[in-house]
Design goal:
The protein is 70% helix and 0% strand. The chain has 184 residues and is mainly α.
């Protein structure tokens, strides 16, 4: 096999991994949506699952499943791709940014929340995140400090998501449609 064919085969394998991640992350996120309620509203479950219907809480739907899928990918891909940590950090931030942008854009225009749009925005966010992750995987090697920055920003988000569930600022992104902030 020529070097070009081998590289294309490797890119195809990485692309398949990223595309397989879309339904797995999406379905896992959809399942996580109900875990807090199913647990009888156990507080520690609020670390990983939404505790109310606020925009902030719904960001967990993409974060934790993407982290778990990234850990699985690490086992199979980290030696075959460039920029693993940067790619996954980018994916972890793309999902919430897209969800927030779509949610506030359409609710500003329409004046109401529509569940179907919320679900579709989650799917679009996950798909875009996985695609951009693929592009970063297959890009030229980034400087080493980018991996360090990626880990720091990932850890910041991993801490912020649960902290603001327990100690939410009194801002609209943290308030659900019933007027609740954080754990009810």
């Amino acid at each position: 096999m020529t070097m070009s064919k081998k590289r294309n085969s490797q890119k195809n394998r990485v692309f398949k991994w990223e595309m397989i991640g879309i339904p797995l992350i999406f379905l896992s996120g959809a399942l996580i949506h109900f875990v807090f309620e199913w647990s009888g509203e156990l507080a520690f479950i609020g670390i990983f699952a939404p505790v109310n219907e606020s925009v902030w809480e719904h960001l967990k739907l993409g974060f934790w499943p993407t982290c778990i899928y990234a850990a699985i990918e690490w086992l199979f891909l980290h030696r075959q791709v460039n920029n693993f940590l940067a790619a996954k950090a980018a994916a972890l931030y793309i999902v919430p940014v897209i969800i927030v942008l779509i949610f506030y854009s359409y609710t500003l225009l329409l004046g109401e929340e529509i569940l179907a749009i919320d679900i579709l925005s989650f799917l679009v966010a996950v798909a875009l995140a996985q695609y951009i992750s693929y592009k970063i995987f297959t890009a030229s090697e980034l400087p080493r400090y980018v991996s360090t920055i990626s880990v720091i920003f990932t850890l910041l988000l991993a801490v912020a998501l649960p902290v603001f569930s327990f100690y939410p600022p009194q801002l609209p992104v943290f308030m659900d449609s019933r007027g609740f902030y954080g754990i009810p």
